């Protein structure tokens, strides 16, 4: 049974023992008791909401950390992985309008609890394909697998291979094709992420407004700051969890690990990506439990009852009391949904030039940041030859704390120097300008392509032919029956990587598994300055300068992350200060909607398509068709990834300049805050002190869409 605010007040006051003849003491004691009960209830809600923010941030960042693992496990290109990543935003958009517009009239804690269950169901669904798919198969020549059969890599005559082994291999391949042809298990990952987006939707709008409605006014900013802090801590643990799971083999617990012949450094390695989703799903379930036991309403503090002005969000929440009937509530909701109420607000909002220009700048900048963050693990792995485990560890332990510190610094600067609207616009512009300027230096901090015979160098040590497919074959391997589709790299004694032992012309091998050594490799011996003709399993390491370049990249990346994050809070304050007070919630809803539709969904897709253009060697599926990329052109990848990020960032800076120009045009010389006509929907006149006080309360409440994963 739901309890109203007045009933709650009475309930908590009834247990107080009071003298009959001291009415003033009775009033003071009742107020004190109500304050304690209110604070207790809101603090329980605060703890539960902080845990939910931690859970959703952890699962979201863990998805980012498994992008390359999912790509390899399901043998799909980066563009398709981008679609999977964007499905979260699609799920969010399906119900965000309904939740934001009508959710305040319902039982907000229980809606959040239901969202947590849906979010956990989606997380579990992402992991399910692992239990229904066959075991992961990587490309390996039979001689590198633990076997008593000795097979020459260079098959001059297929009769050298025992018939039983060939038949067994063909039978397995045929069965695998039949199973693979009828299933596209990556769809379950997409649907699971879509479900995650649906479940996450009510957490932010309903949770924050619940705190704003029932917390003491001076404590609201602090409470919201605690929630956002939890949202920053979540990604740290998410990427660290991704680092741990990437070290474990994908089929751990299902296969004998001694039979695995690849290591985490191999491009075909797939970690236990599914394990982290099971852990994140359990955390989401636990996070949702407390909300089912929290009340619909809490006692409002005395300061809120006596104040003539309510919180901005409360203007959109219709107060409920015992006299209202359900029919009247439905009538008010229907009135809010009428076009007569909605369209004028929309027209007023889009008639505000500062809002429109800042919205355009944010959309383009988030396209840049979302694309950069989504494929940052892939870029580090491919450009610097790092393992997935080390990449996730570095991002979680270095980049994300830099983002958190940057957001905090932006709020601190706003408070310390009492910055107004125009100053906030300048600070936001400055952070973006210098951030992208630092990003420009990363072009000089890349690694050269690894020497791969037939792809990046010729079999004689010179540059390859234009047609990479034809270049895979040479005189040294002309007598071998090799496939150009295989990817089973070996490292020759000459420091050159060969696509397979067959294409290296190897005619003998010794050992098994990871310890296999190939001998009499004609292509290794024919390479200029070659002293031997032997090779070992796995690709050769990147150049000697690459570890140093990776260190430089990390330093600049951390500084860039911090610099870009400093402008987040000032930009958010600018957004809020240039809108009529009664349109703030609506403006933030439109802002979030635009970011998700025009940045969150398309950015991972077209970044993935662009990255796919830099692929040199595609993998092949067992049943034919193109799989995941095995080798990228390092130079092309660097220019595509960083170039696209910088181009988008530069365009957003031009819009930021336009915002500054409009603000300067409308500001007075004596004050940096705007003085404008309310009828035109521009910023209202405020004193510097008033603007500072208001911005101080919003410093800790800054929210970016998926802010916790923007590195």
TrEMBL record:
- List the CDD domains: MFS_SLCO1C_OATP1C
Q: What is its main location?
A: membrane
Name the UniProt key words of this record, in alphabetical order: Cell membrane, Disulfide bond, Glycoprotein, Ion transport, Lipid transport, Membrane, Transmembrane, Transmembrane helix, Transport
GO CC term, one of those recorded: basolateral plasma membrane
Q: Which GO terms describe its molecular function?
A: bile acid transmembrane transporter activity; sodium-independent organic anion transmembrane transporter activity
Q: Where are the transmembrane segments?
A: 40-59, 80-104, 110-132, 230-250, 270-294, 355-373, 393-413, 425-445, 549-576, 588-611, 640-663
- The Kazal-like domain is annotated at 470-525
Instruction: Give the family per the record.
Output: Belongs to the organo anion transporter (TC 2.A.60) family.
Q: What is this protein called?
A: Solute carrier organic anion transporter family member
Instruction: Give the species this sequence originates from.
Output: Pteruthius melanotis
Provide the taxonomic classification: Eukaryota, Metazoa, Chordata, Craniata, Vertebrata
Gene name, please? Slco1c1_1
């Amino acid at each position: 049974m739901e309890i109203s605010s007045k009933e709650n007040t009475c309930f908590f006051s009834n247990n107080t023992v009071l003298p009959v003849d001291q009415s003033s003491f009775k009033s003071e004691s009742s107020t004190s008791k109500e304050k304690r009960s209110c604070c207790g209830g809101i603090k329980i809600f605060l703890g539960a909401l902080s845990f939910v923010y931690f859970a959703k941030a952890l699962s979201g960042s863990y998805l980012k950390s498994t992008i390359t693992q999912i790509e390899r496990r399901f043998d799909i290109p980066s563009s398709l992985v981008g679609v999977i990543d964007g499905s979260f935003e699609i799920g969010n958009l399906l119900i965000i309008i309904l939740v934001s517009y009508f959710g305040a009239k319902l039982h907000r804690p229980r809606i959040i609890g239901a969202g947590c269950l849906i979010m956990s169901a989606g997380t579990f669904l992402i992991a399910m394909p692992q239990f229904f798919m066959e075991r992961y198969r990587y490309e390996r020549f039979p001689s590198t697998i633990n076997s008593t059969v000795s097979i020459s890599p260079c098959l001059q005559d297929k009769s050298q291979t025992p018939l039983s082994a060939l038949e067994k291999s063909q039978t397995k391949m045929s069965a695998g094709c039949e199973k693979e042809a009828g299933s596209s298990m990556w769809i379950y990952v997409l649907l699971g992420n879509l479900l995650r987006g649906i479940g996450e939707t009510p957490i932010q709008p309903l949770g924050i407004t619940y705190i704003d409605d029932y917390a003491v006014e001076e404590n609201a900013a602090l409470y919201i700051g605690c929630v956002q802090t939890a949202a920053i801590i979540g990604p740290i643990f998410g990427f660290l969890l991704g680092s741990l799971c990437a070290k474990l083999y994908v089929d751990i617990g299902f296969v004998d690990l001694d039979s695995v012949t690849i290591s985490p450094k191999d491009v075909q390695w797939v970690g236990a990506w599914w394990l982290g989703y099971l852990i994140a799903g359990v955390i989401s379930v636990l996070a949702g439990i407390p909300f089912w036991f929290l009340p619909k309403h809490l006692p409002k503090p005395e300061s809120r009852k006596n104040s003539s002005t309510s919180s901005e969000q409360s203007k959109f929440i219709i107060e409920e009391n015992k006299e209202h009937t359900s029919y009247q509530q439905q009538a008010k909701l229907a009135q809010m949904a009428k076009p007569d109420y909605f369209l004028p607000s929309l027209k007023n909002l889009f008639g505000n030039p500062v809002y429109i220009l800042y919205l355009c700048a944010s959309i383009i900048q988030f396209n840049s940041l979302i694309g950069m963050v989504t494929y940052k693990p892939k870029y580090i792995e491919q450009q610097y030859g790092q393992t997935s485990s080390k990449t996730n560890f570095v991002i979680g332990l270095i980049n994300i704390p830099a983002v958190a510190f940057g957001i905090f610094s932006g709020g601190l600067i706003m408070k310390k120097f009492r910055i107004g609207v125009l100053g906030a616009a300048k600070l936001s512009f400055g952070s973006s300008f210098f951030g992208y300027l630092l990003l420009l230096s990363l072009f000089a901090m890349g690694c050269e392509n690894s020497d791969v015979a037939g792809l990046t160098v010729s079999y004689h040590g010179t540059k390859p032919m234009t047609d990479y497919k034809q270049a895979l074959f040479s005189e040294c391997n002309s007598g071998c029956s090799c496939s150009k589709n295989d990817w089973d790299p070996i490292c020759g004694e000459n420091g050159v990587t060969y696509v397979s032992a067959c294409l290296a012309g190897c005619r003998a091998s010794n050992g098994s598994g990871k310890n296999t050594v190939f001998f009499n490799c004609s292509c290794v011996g024919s390479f200029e300055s070659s002293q031997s003709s032997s090779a070992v399993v796995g690709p050769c390491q990147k150049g000697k300068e690459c570890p140093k370049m990776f260190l430089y990249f990390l330093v600049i990346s951390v500084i860039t992350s911090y610099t870009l994050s400093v402008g987040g809070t000032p930009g958010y304050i600018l957004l809020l200060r240039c809108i009529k007070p009664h349109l703030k919630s609506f403006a933030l809803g439109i802002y979030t909607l635009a970011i998700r539709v025009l940045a969150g969904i398309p950015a991972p897709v077209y970044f993935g398509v662009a990255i796919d253009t830099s692929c040199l060697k595609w993998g092949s599926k067992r049943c034919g068709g193109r799989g995941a990329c095995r080798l990228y052109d390092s130079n092309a990848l660097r220019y595509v990834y960083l170039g696209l990020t910088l181009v988008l960032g530069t365009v957003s800076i031009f819009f930021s300049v336009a915002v500054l120009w409009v603000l300067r045009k409308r500001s007075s010389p004596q004050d940096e805050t705007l003085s404008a006509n309310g009828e035109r929907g521009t910023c209202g006149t405020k004193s510097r002190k008033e603007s500072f006080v208001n911005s101080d309360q919003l410093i800790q409440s800054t929210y970016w869409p998926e802010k916790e994963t923007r590195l």
